[in-house]
Each structure stands twice: as structure tokens, then as C-alpha cells.
Amino acid sequence: MKLLYISQHRFIRDKLGRIFSTGAMDAEYFYKYLGVFDSVCVIGLLYDETEKNSMKHSSKTIEETEVITFSFVHSNSFQFYNPKVIKRLKSLINTKIETHDIIGCKTASGAGLANWIARKSNKPYFIEVVGCAWDSLWNYGLKGKIIALPYFLMQKKIVWNAPFVIYVTNSFLQSRYKTKGKTAAISDVTIEGKTSNPWMTRTKSFTEKIVIGTAGSVQSPYKGQRYVIEAISNLKNAGHGNYIYRLAGGGNCTALKQLAIKKGVANCIIFDGVIPHNKMGTWYSSLDLYIQPSLTEGLPRALLEAMSYGLPSLGARVGGIPELLESSCLFRKRNPNEIERLLIELTSKDLSKASQRNFLYSNQYSMSILKKKRTEFLELVKCSLEQ
After folding, report:
1. How far is it, in rounded angstroms, from Cα 132 to Cα 119?
2. Among 184, 202, 256, 280, whose CB has the most other CB atoms within 10 angstroms?
3. What would the pLDDT profile of 113-161 be if each residue is shown by its tens digit?
4. How many domains, the chain?
5. Same domain for 138 and 271?
6. For residue 337, how many other CB atoms are within 10 A of its CB?
7. How far apart are CA 292 and CA 213, in angstroms?
């Protein structure tokens, strides 16, 4: 049985012809559907690498296999909505639908085509709700604010009418995007299970420098690193200058560097750049505390990974973050004063307690648990085809 996975996810082709994902959606991402389906064909958007977008892609190339393949529509612009590109996407889907059995798509990238898919074919489809269109677009600048409401309403309608819906959160996205279809709460983030808590084995004294970290694009304002930089500046001015802030992630970091210089904390901020995923464990292990200051999130992969390393963590009260952390570890978005307060209030005892809690909590996102839940739900989708 063949799965056609429709998205408007962005892929970048460099001058050597190599293709990269701009996020987690590489070939390995789709292994989770194998076993239920015999093969997966992924539809996405392909851009040629330019000086402007060269920092947006991941470091790992897309490698097709016999059972995981990719089909792309070429686009020249990263703009939100391009009618010509949508028309070419529909044409590509038309050529693929007849040779596939089930359709999958992801909001908001692919769900805009879901109603059209349903009308074109009588084949079952499922939608994965991974984020909120309103939150994502509203925090993307003026152009995003203009289209935030229509995209939000469109996503609500599409999810409501979908026959099968997977939410990556336990409650946040379910409350915003209700459906009359069958549902499951299954994170698209999986964690490698660990038998012991790495953070608890350290002997460091917290009278020394405290190293804080955030993983995410340093070019995207909605990741919120600037508010941590401002909080560290406030702390330094108040006589608490024992913080180092490490940022892992690609993109142009000029704006954040200039802010750090302006705030007098340039020597406290370290830009680590893009780190291969197999090296992220070493990076997490270099931290004392993780912070997710995002303005919008679904269920943040980096935060869950940090928790699996036993890292005490703070996060903005947005998206699925409050589902992962205790209320005492949350702050309002865009609020450096609350970040400053939480950092001051933390003690070694608090950190140890938070470490153990996060380590144990992250276990429910282990690959084996999520695979079982996903397999059971996708088997329901398959059964609908046979009925």
C-alpha cells in the first residue's frame, strides 16, 4: 500500500545538484510510515540555492531509497502564496494520486490542498496538525499579519472536515482546531530513550558560570533569542554577570550579534552555528539550562531533546510548551523581565528537581511508544480504504 505525502515544505538544491531540507523533513523523517505503508512519495517545493537562502537548509542531503522518494515543484520565491506554484502542485498531485492508495498532508503546508484532494479522489486521507497558522503568520511580520486570519480560518475548516487527524500536542492544537473526524495525539518528535539522566552525573557548582542554550534558527525573530539576550543584559547590570548564552542554529546572526553588542553582553553570547544532529548530544551536555523563548511553537523538538538529556528548562507560554514544562518554569513571550526573574529564582536544588522531572517526562516521547500509537492510528486509515 502506497502513501502520497503532500506538503509545501521547502527544499533547496545547491550548485552541485544536492538537495537539502529546510527542516526535519528529510528521508529519515518518513521512515515512521513504513511498516504501515510499503512506500512513501513526498511532494514538496524546490528552490535553487542563493546567497539569501543558503543558510536556511539543514546540513544533511536528501537521499532517496526504493521506498521513500521525493517529487518537487520548482519555485523561485519564498513568498507565502504563489498561484502559479499552487497550480503546478495540483498538476503534480494529479499525476501521482492514481498510483497511490492513501494521502497524508501536514498543516499548514499541505492542508490547503486537502479539500481539493478529497474532491478529486475518493481515497482516504489524514492531516497532521503540527502548528497554528495564526501564531506562525502573526509573528512573521506585516505580510504575515495580513494573511494570518484567512489562513487561520481556512485551517480550522480543513481540520474540521478531515476524516483522520493527528495532533502533535495533547491539548493545545486540539482546542484551536477541532474536527469531526477520528483523532490521535502523536508527537512528530521522537526521543532516543536513555537509561540514566546525564545532567545528574555532573559535579559542577552553580556559583560558576551558568551556561544557557537555545537551539533554533538565529535568523527567525519568532524563535525569541533576543529576549534572553536582553534578560542577560539586565542581570549583568544588576550584578549577576555569571551567565553564558549559547545559540545553536543556522541563519544570519547579524541582528542578534548587534543586539548583544548594544546591550553590552557580546562576550556572554556564543553562536555555535549549525550542528549536525548526531553532534547535538554533545552540545546539550555542555549546557546547565535550556530555554525555549519562542513566540510560536507546535511541540518544539529542541526542548524535548534537551529534556531527554535531563536539562532543567524554561519556556515561553506558547503552543505546546506548557504541556512539557511545569508552570513555574514558564514565562510570557517577549518578556525578558520574567526570564530574568526565573533565572534569579533558580537554585541548585530547583535545578536538580527540574532535571529529574524533565528526564522522566521525556520518556513518553520515546520512539517505541510513539511508533505504536502512530501504527495503530494509521491502521484505522487503511481500514477505511477497505470498507
Report:
1. 25
2. 256
3. 766 776 677 888 899 998 888 888 887 778 788 888 988 888 898 899 8
4. 2
5. no
6. 13
7. 9
Q: In sequence order, what are the residues at sequence separation of 6 or more whose Cβ sits closer than 8 angstroms to the Cβ of residue 304?
A: 187, 189, 191, 324, 362, 365
Q: Which of 144, 168, 40 is CA-nearest to residue 99?
A: 40
Q: What is the CATH number of the domain that holds 307?
A: 3.40.50.2000
The whole-number pLDDT of residue 112 equals: 61
Question: Is 70 exceeded by the pLDDT of residue 79?
Answer: no
Cell of 349: 536544588
CA dist 284 → 33, 290, 328 (Å): 29, 8, 22
Residues 284 and 143 in one domain: no
Pairing relation of β-strands 102-107 and 269-273? unpaired
Q: Which domain holds residue 297?
A: 198-364
Euclidean distance between CA atoms 167 and 188, whole angstroms: 9
Residue of 249, 216, 217, 213 whose CA lies nearest to 229: 213
**Residues 100 and 115 both lie in one domain:** yes
For residues 372 and 356, state if they share a domain. Answer: no
pTM, two decimal places = 0.87
SS (H, E, C) 347-371: CHHHHHHHHHHHHHHHHHHEHHHHH
